[in-house]
Amino acid sequence: MTAGEFDGIDLGCVIDSLQVGIIILDSAQRIRHCNRWLTQRSGLSASAIDGKPLYEVFPEARGSRLEQAVLHAIDDRLPSLLSPALHGTLLALYQTPGDRRHDRRMQQMIHVVPLSDKAQQGACLIQISDMTANISRERLLRQQTETLRRTTTQDALTGVANRRKFDDVLASEFHKAQRNQSQLALMIIDLDAFSRYNTHYGRERGDVCLSEIAAVLQDAVRPLGDLLARYAGDEFALILPGIDEREACRLAENLRLRVGTLGISNAASNTGYLTASIGVTVMQPSADADTHTLLSSADVALYQAKHEGRNRVVYFSAEDGSFKSYG
Amino acid sequence: MSLNELQRDALGEIFNIGVGRAAASLSQIVSDEVLLSAPEVMVVHREQAAKVLLGAELNQFSTVSQSFSGPFDAQAMLVFPESNALEIVRLMVGPHMSIEELSEFEQEAMCEIGNIILNACMSSLADIFHIRFESTLPLHRFGDTYNLPILDGDEEQMVLLLQVDMIISQQRIQGHILFLLSVPSMSALLDHIDRYLSSQGLA
Amino acid sequence: MEKNTHPLLLIVDDSRMSRMLVRAIVADSRPDWRIAEACNGDEALQIVAEECPDYISMDVNMPGISGLEAAGRIRIRHPEARITLCTANIQESTREAAARAGVHFVAKPITAQSVADAIAFFEA
């Protein structure tokens, strides 16, 4: 068939130069034209394709969604898209002869669009794009995103969540607790006399010690739902959704003992080893409450623990302003 | 502008035939049963349609749209909450993929699923009314409640709103189909329904 | 109850238009048939309990029990009733379920052709 001209340029040439596969079908689903891209990728000569029924040239398309899409275009005049995710390698098309030998078909995105021929009969255009490169590029992009996501939400030294992640999770857990009318516990864990530890042993030992303690704390929390974050230099915070006062205080006491029994010597402390003070609070946030109340309650509890002589757990209730001391 | 009971019933049946065909196509892709139903059609104003969608707890949406033109024009849109869309893709593509891998395919896969459902609805109308539409290719967009395309524009438009229930592998997933029609297109649609009903001796 | 000589057809469909369409087409080609209507499966079972129809045209997707279930229950008590499933659900799995339940499958839309197909099955 002759493709005609456009401003003196042969349209057949134009179609042959396209970097997508083109198949033009008539209303009887015979191939009226295909371009060079397609002959190269299919390994068939134009003469083996032109004028042949689609399913004789591409038997793999019979009974497939491509067949439906072609009928839809010819009979109903509606366009279809076949995505690589759902069909991927529908047609036997290959980037290289090597791929053909190993039957590594290219990933395809196929558009099927209605056309009208001169006799106003339904005809259709099948357009095939090679998605192989896009898919591997997306995979790479996803890996990079994952790396980036980890580095922007993780504390570089200890590997636990950073302050930004903590703020996000606290806001969303708070909102969830408001909606579900459930309890939310928050703990702030402060290492006693840690600045003096740093001065005495050097910042490098201090960093090692922070990592060790972070690992011990992380080990004690539930892997799903709870979030341990580095809140400030020597402070960690722990978000515990759905936990009541008794459970929260029991866990805090457990954490305090774990830190103490690590037996990290601290000449700067009067106990002789490194200890932690922990402020705990639990609330069932009302609709008009905000995270500030929860944070400052945990802070108040922590100050009280320090005030009572450190190495202890103090619980503060924002509802009745009462303290409870453990340890 | 509103539909009487029989017009609404007719439109509901026509769309159910459409989604039934779409379900058959989807089921062929997954080689498993796929159930699709659109229990009823509502005719609402654009703002009301937006409200129905916003009523959903999650406000991130995955939308696929196509513009149909013919004896009447309609902008058709399939809208799923984002998490439901990902779930559909997971069920369609298969359980062997991680959620990250799935999201990389999500847009095109949803485009195709939307294309199948929207084309089926419109060709069901076309078959019954003996008319023909042209259409653009499907376009996928993510949107939240603030930039959902339905909220755009100031021209007065009516919306045919259908809730769709999709069941794949025993999982029920809900979404909506919307057809946005200008007032003249809406009255042309009503004319076609009436003509069909009277040709069948029903009105 | 004395058996009426005019066959009774029960049309079960939640769509009023669909019931009206089947009724109009049947009334045209089989004017002697008596026609009853139900708009869901439970209503169909009630009608069947009073007088078992000779023929039943049953939709599948309806509020309450599905048409397949209703057809199954009717066939247990009235194996002689001839039932067609008239549905927009055209999947292979529905056709197979219809075959297992011993009922005839008719794809919507309801047209003179599809109703003629159902009538041919009823009278076979």
Provide structural commentary.
The complex is a heterotrimer of chains A (327), B (203) and C (124). Chain A is of the alpha+beta class and 327 residues long. Chain A has two domains: 5-136, Beta-Lactamase (2-Layer Sandwich); 154-326, Reverse transcriptase/Diguanylate cyclase domain (Alpha-Beta Plaits, 2-Layer Sandwich), CATH 3.30.70.270. Helices cover 44% and strands 22% of the residues of chain A. Chain B has helices spanning 5-30, 46-54, 82-93, 99-129, 183-199, and strands spanning 34-37, 41-45, 60-69, 74-81, 134-135, 139-144, 157-168, 171-182. Chain B is an alpha+beta fold. Chain B has one domain: CheC-like (Chemotaxis protein chec, 3-Layer(aba) Sandwich). In chain B, helix 3 (82-93) packs across helix 4. By secondary structure, chain C is α/β, with parallel strands linked by helices. Chain C has a single domain (8-123), classed as Response regulator (Rossmann fold, 3-Layer(aba) Sandwich), CATH 3.40.50. Chain C has helices at 16-29, 41-50, 67-77, 92-100, 112-123; strands at residues 8-12, 34-38, 55-58, 82-87, 104-107. In chain C, strands 2-1-3-4-5 form a five-stranded parallel sheet, sandwiched between helices. In chain C, helix 4 (92-100) links the parallel strand 4 (82-87) and strand 5. The longest helix of chain C has 14 residues, at 16-29. Chain C is globular. The model of chain C has no long low-confidence stretch (mean pLDDT 91). The interface between B and C is medium-sized, with 26 and 17 residues.
Q: Secondary-structure map with pairings?
A:
The complex is a heterotrimer of chains A (327), B (203) and C (124).
Chain A: E1 5-6, E2 9-10, H1 11-17, E3 21-25, E4 31-34, H2 36-42, H3 46-49, H4 54-57, H5 65-76, E5 80-82, H6 84-87, H7 97-101, E6 108-116, E7 122-130, H8 132-153, H9 163-180, E8 184-191, H10 194-201, H11 203-220, E9 227-232, E10 235-241, H12 245-261, E11 276-283, H13 291-307, E12 313-316, E13 323-326
Parallel strand pairs in A: 11-12
Antiparallel strand pairs in A: 1-2, 3-4, 3-7, 5-6, 6-7, 8-10, 8-11, 9-10, 12-13
Helix pairs in contact in A: 10-11, 11-12
Chain B: H1 5-30, E1 34-37, E2 41-45, H2 46-54, E3 60-69, E4 74-81, H3 82-93, H4 99-129, E5 134-135, E6 139-144, E7 157-168, E8 171-182, H5 183-199
Antiparallel strand pairs in B: 1-7, 2-7, 3-4, 3-5, 3-6, 4-8, 7-8
Chain C: E1 8-12, H1 16-29, E2 34-38, H2 41-50, E3 55-58, H3 67-77, E4 82-87, H4 92-100, E5 104-107, H5 112-123
Parallel strand pairs in C: 1-2, 1-3, 3-4, 4-5
Helix pairs in contact in C: 2-3
